[in-house]
Specification:
The protein is α+β, with helices and mostly antiparallel strands and 209 residues long. Helices cover 50% and strands 14% of the residues. The longest helix has 26 residues.
Length: 209
């Protein structure tokens, strides 16, 4: 009996270490920087897009295709979160492999060259997959929230107006009709109430206010 309890405790500890490890990896993504334009946030935006679509069950297994949902979600995030660089899912989709937790299954006809458009990316890639352990963490609401919080804390810092823009990005993709009553502080002491549909990104932003 005590051995079973010990094993369960060990498993929980392993899970926590795994989550912490992926949070560290998310915080230390290798991204391009430019003095004039700042940080190119392709990789964190791709991860946010994948996590959001997984939370909504648009991605239901660990085979992440270059789908219209993923393309549109990435583009909408990009438009709000990083306008200084040219956008496009084809930029980070292959480069995210260098982080060690993102893996790509290429089509037989792939020529080994970086696709220069999203359409060419579609023709080059069957699907991407995450480490199985990371994909399981993303499916768990608590772990998922922690991973999203990490991405936002490290890579995004925005004004109230920009945050309000962000929460409207995925309305047309939102499958849940539930609403959340969230208390939110602005610059004044007075609380404002927001009624928002469920979204992992919205929760992450407003949990920090």
């Amino acid at each position: 009996m005590s051995k079973n309890i010990e094993n369960k405790s060990k498993n929980k500890a392993d899970d926590k270490r795994s989550l912490a490890e992926y949070c560290d990896r998310f915080a230390e993504l290798n991204v391009s920087t430019n003095k004039q334009r700042g940080t190119a946030q392709y990789k964190p935006i791709l991860l946010l897009s994948v996590i959001d679509l997984t939370a909504q069950d648009f991605i239901s297994d660990n085979k992440i295709a270059v789908s219209e949902n993923l393309i549109n979600t990435f583009n909408r995030y990009w438009k709000i979160l990083n306008s200084e660089y040219e956008g496009g899912l084809h930029y980070p989709f292959l480069h995210l492999q260098s982080e060690g937790f993102w893996h790509i299954e290429f089509k037989p006809e792939f020529n080994g060259l970086q696709p220069k458009t999203t359409n060419k990316l579609k023709h080059a890639v069957e699907y991407a997959s995450l480490d199985n352990e990371l994909f399981e963490l993303i499916q768990d609401p608590v772990s998922r929230q922690t991973l999203v919080d990490t991405l936002i804390d490290v890579w995004f810092s925005y004004s109230k107006k920009q945050i309000e823009d962000v929460i409207s990005i995925n309305n047309e993709f939102q499958s849940s009709k539930d609403e959340l009553d969230i208390n939110h502080f602005d610059d004044s002491p007075q609380r404002k109430r927001f009624y928002l549909k469920k979204s992992i990104l919205r929760n992450a932003f407003f949990a920090r206010q």
